[in-house]
Structures are given as C-alpha cells and as structure tokens.
Amino acid sequence: MPTNLLLAITPWPAISAVIWVVLLVAVLYLARNTAHQAIRTASGAIARGMRIAAHSVRQAQDRLAARNREVLLAAGREAKERMVEREFMRVSETVRKDLANYPHLHRALSEAITQIEKDHQGAVEVPPDPPGWVKAVETVSKIEAKNGANEVLSDIHKSVVKAHKEAMDAYRDASAERHELLRAMMPRWRDVQEILSTVDKKVEGLLARLGIIDRHMQEYEAIVKGEDKAVSVLSSSSLVHFFVSAMVLFVAIGGAAINFTLIARPMAEMVGGTSFIGVFKTADIAALVIIMVEISMGLFLMESLRITRLFPVISALPDKMRTRMIYITFTILLLLASVEAGLAYMREVLLQDELSTSAILRGGEPQVSNQFLWITTAAQMGMGFILPFALTFVAIPLETFVHSLRTVLGLLGIGLLRATSLILRVLSSGFRHLGTLTERVYDLPLFVPLWLESRWSARSPRAEAAEVAPAHAAREEDLREVAS
Amino acid sequence: MKRIAVLSCVLLAACSQSAPVARNTGVYLLLDTSGTYRAELSKAQDVILYTLSKLEPTDSFAVARIDTGSFSEKNIIAKATFDERPSAANAQKRVFAEKVKDFIARSNASQYTDITGGLLQAVEFLNEKQPGRKTILLFSDLDQDLQKGYVRDVEVPFKGFQVVALNVVKLRKDNYDPREYLARLDHWKQEVEKSGGEWRVVNDLDHLDGVL
C-alpha cells in the first residue's frame, strides 16, 4: 500500500519511481559526509572498544602467566629443596654409618697390615753359614798322604756329608716354615682387598649421590634464577603429574565405589533399609560417610608421617604430638577396616538369606548352601579390610593432583585469555573494515553524483587535494588500527 | 561419580526443611473364597508370593478372605509390617508365605460374597498403617452376593487408594450375556472412582510388573 502511494505522485508510476530515486540519491549525496562520519565513528568506536578489551585481556593473560610462573617456580623450588634435603639426609646417613664404622675398619686394616709385615719378616730367606771347613780341607790336602791325610780327608768327607745333610734338612724346614707363613698371608691380603673394595664402593656411592645433589643444585639454581628452560621443564612435568595423578585418582574412585558396594547393603541392617535423608537412603549415606572418614584418616596418617604436605598445621606439630596422631589415625583406620570386613561378611550372609527367601517366594525350595561359599566370603572380607588401607595412599596422588591442578588451570586460563584476546583483535579489525565497506556500499548508489563531483574536482586541484587528504588520513588510520 | 554426587546432594537435602514423606507401600489383598471362585485360589498364592517378593522393609501387607461377612478382622489371614532390617523382613516374609500356604490348603468355600465389606476393612487397615502408597488387590470375579440382613449401601472412601482387580474371571452367565460382565466391571470402577480412587483391572497374572 505505501509503495502504491509513493508511485502515485504522478500518473506514471515509472516516472514517480525515477523521481523518488533521484530524490533519494540527492538526499544521500547531501548527507554523504555526515553519514560517512557516522559510519566511521560507529565502527571506530566498536573497534577501539574491542581493541581496549583485547588489550586488557592480554594484560590479564600476562598477569596470569606471571602468576603461574611464580607458582610453578615456587612449587619447583619447594620440590627441589625437598629432594636436595632428602639427598643430604641420605649422604649424612651414609657418612654417619661409615664413619662410625671407620675406626673398626682402620683397626682391622692396621692389624692385617701388621700381621702381613710380621709374616713377611718371618718369610725372609736366611743365607746359609759360610763353610768353615774349606780352609781346613785346603790345609789337609797339602799334608802328605803317608802322614794319614787320607784318613783325615775321609773323616772330613763324612763330616761334610753329614753337615750337608743337616744343613739341607734345616734349609728345607726353614723353607717350609717360610712357605707356611706366606700361605698364611693370603687370607690377610684378601681381607685387606675386601676392606679396600668395600671402602671403594662406599666412596663411589657417596660420589654418585654427590653427583645427584650437584644436578639437583644446578636445577635449583636455574629455578631460583627463574630461567625459561626451568619453567618449561617444570610446566611439562606439572602436566605429566596432573594426568598421572588424575589417572590414579580415577582408579581410587573405582576402589571407593567397590568399597561402597561392599558395605552399603549390610549398612541397611544397622540404620534401616528404608529410612531416607532427603531423597537418599540413610544406609547409602552411612556407607559413604564411612568411606569418607577412612579417606580422611588416610590423609591425616600420610600427613602425620610427613609423606604428604597438604595440611601445614599437621606438619608443624611437635614430633611427639605427630607420633600420637599417627597411632590414633592408624587405630581408627584399623577399626574401620575391621568394621568393613565384618560388614562384608554380613553382606554375604544377607545375600544368602535373600536368595533363600526369593527361592521360597518363587515357590521353590531354599537354596542348598554352596561348599565353596567361604571363598567369596573370605575374598569380600579381605577386600573390606584391605581397601581402607589402600585408599590411604590416595593422599599421595591427591596432593600431586591438587598442586598440579593450579598450574594446569593457570595454563588453561592463559590459553583461554589468549584466544579471547585474539578473537577481540580480529573482531576489532573486522569492525574497522566493516565501517570502510559500509562507506563504499553507501557510495554505490551515488556513483552518478560522485562521478560528476570528480569531474568537477578535476578542474580545481586544490579542492581535490582538500578532499583527498582526509580520505588518505582515514585510510592510514585504518591501516594503523589493523596493524596494531 | 554417582557415589560422589550422593554426598553433595545430601547436603542440599539436609538444608531443605520439608516434612518427612512416607515412602513405604501398603498392600491389602482380598481373596474371594466364594464357591464359584475358590478354584482360582492357587493362582492367588502365586500373586501373594510375587507381592511378598516385591515388598521392602517397612512395607505393610495383609491378606484377607472375602466371605459372607468380610468387614471383620477375623477375615485377615495374614498380616505384617516388615521390619526395617532386611534380614528380619525376609524372615517375616517366609512366615507370611507359610501362613498363606496353610490357608489355601484348608480353606472352605463361602456361601456369600461380601466384597464391599472386604474393601471397607482394607481401607480401614491401610489408613491405620499410613503408608505412602495404598494398594488394594481384589482377587475376585467381582460378583457380590450379600446374605440377607447385611447392609453394604455405603460409600467406601477410596481417595488415595489404587484398587486393582485381579483375575476377574467370566462366569457362566457372562457367556450368555457379556454385558453382565462388563456391567460388573463398570459398577466397581465407578464405585472406586466416584470416591477418588484409582481403578485397574489385570487379568494376565504373568504381567503384574506395573501393579506394585
């Protein structure tokens, strides 16, 4: 209807349409500068807003990255301190043990060496006495035979043979004694060798441990200096810790669920099978509470043993108090495990009772007891007893999970902020271009007056320069915006 | 995760201060022992055992006979409100099943059929127990036959009750004129629904799943 009215200003609709188009183009041409300014201002305002938003998101990202870096370095520093402390304790323990043993070792070594020296002295070969009868033989040989020299020589010969035999016997005895002494030296040498190799091993172990400490210290120094490499290593190990601990926690949740199944049914015997708290069975809630208490006791036990450090208050307790806490938490855990074992037994009894009743209600005979039933009963009881203690160890992956979660959340936050910043920048640039495009689209129906204007401007260069300058400035500004 | 959700929901539930809602079920089963229907009692035993297997601790269950004058506690064959402890409830169920078995073995046919009296007794019993859900199982051919002198022209307050007619067999006369059978069903339906009850008919006893 309005279109018909518009086309009815002249008797010829086509002419009416032409008139309207001309009028519209004229109006648009007259409002061109104002419209361009409006479009430019609007798109510029939106683009600037987005750029400012992107900038502040970027700042937030930087702050978060810095914070994450601090957290990561602090965690790494603490972990390294713990490692170095533990290594030093091990070294101290080794040195204490070995040094305590050192006087004994030294005495054993000295005794062995003294004995060896003594034996060595004893084993020295004694040279035989020089033959005193040689000169006598020479003298007798110069006496004539008729003066009875032959007899003398014969006697001497006998004496010599006898002396030789005695000397040989004495020599053999002495040699045998020396050999005996040398043989006795062998185990002492072995003792000495053994003692020295033990010392060597211990020293080598100590050196290896010192090498580990050196490595830890280098890493610690890198962390203290806040080196990028250290941050990168810590970040990647934090991610690994996160996924590993999450997996272990998932397994632990499975264990807790099995534990729950074991005790929820017999709990109904204690708290009633149909009482509810809200929409949940009281028996289920009671079973869940027992499991939660077990996990809590496990956490406290691990804290008291200083295996985990989730609660600084517990770590800071005096040793005496901490020891008491260990005993108390362990006793509670033991009691709860015993209760669970009892409940697991009760579960099996109830199950059999229920099966028997079901059999009767189905019109059959009660079930005959299975001779291998004790196996499942014992297995359930064992699981009921062991699972609470197994759940105690959840504290270790939980601590790792909590610590690594901070870093992982930080990394996720950084990624999210980075993506937001990028999107805002792209949108900012997009709006800037959209403004330019809108201007061009606005000019599209005005091509006739604009062409005429350009022809007119061609005749007056100053006017053209005056017209072109703001357009250039606007384009340059656009480029700057896009570049930023 | 389901288990973990339980604890978080507990806290929410603990915060909401709502009045305790009874979640138990009360079932009253009426057994027609009239001459024409007595042969069906063996089927009733299966229904009773099925019902017992479906009931849980704190539920109430009673089985009563319909005879000449059914508005009496003496007509109750067995009744029990099951203990909170599942083991005790199982023991009660076994005793209950034994009682029903004995009754079916030695029950006599009654001359008349006072269904309204039985229903009134059922309503009284279940109202006294105040369960969360009240169900009356009517194991009968629904053919009421009152002895002279018994007045049953009363409106039974069925509001909040589910009445399930089980195994409504066709009588010989129904074969001649099925309208009588349909009229009987319609009569009891109107009786129940008129006073705010819910009416169902289940003739296939192998499919009692939705009854309780």
Kindly list the characteristics that best describe this protein.
heterodimer, A: mainly alpha, two-stranded antiparallel sheet, 2 strands, 87% helix, B: 212 residues, alpha/beta, 41% helix, 18% strand
How are the SSEs ordered, and which strands pair?
The complex is a heterodimer of chains A (484) and B (212).
Chain A lengths: L1 H5 L6 H18 L1 H91 L10 H10 L6 H77 L2 H44 L4 E2 L2 E2 H23 L7 H4 L3 H43 L11 H20 L2 H49 L3 H13 L1 H23 L1
Antiparallel strand pairs in A: 1-2
Helix pairs in contact in A: 2-3, 3-5, 3-6, 3-11, 4-5, 6-7, 6-9, 6-10, 6-11, 7-9, 7-10, 9-10, 12-13
Chain B lengths: L1 H14 L9 E8 L8 H14 L5 E7 L9 E6 L4 H21 L8 H15 L3 E7 L21 E6 L5 H5 L1 H17 L3 E5 L10
Parallel strand pairs in B: 1-2, 1-4, 4-5, 5-6
Antiparallel strand pairs in B: 2-3
Helix pairs in contact in B: 2-3
Describe the structure in brief:
The complex is a heterodimer of chains A (484) and B (212). Chain A is mostly helical and 484 residues long.
Textual characterization of the structure:
The complex is a heterodimer of chains A (484) and B (212). Chain A is 87% helix and 1% strand. By secondary structure, chain A is mainly α. The longest helix of chain A is centred in the first third of the chain and has 91 residues. The radius of gyration of chain A is 51 Å and the shape is elongated. The model of chain A has no long low-confidence stretch (mean pLDDT 84). With 212 residues, chain B is α/β, with parallel strands linked by helices. Helix content of chain B is 41%, strand content 18%. Chain B has a six-stranded mixed beta sheet, with helices on both faces. In chain B, helix 2 runs antiparallel to helix 3. The chains are: A mainly alpha (484), B alpha/beta (212). At the A-B interface, helix 6, strand 1, helix 7 and helix 9 of A face helix 1, helix 2 and helix 3 of B.
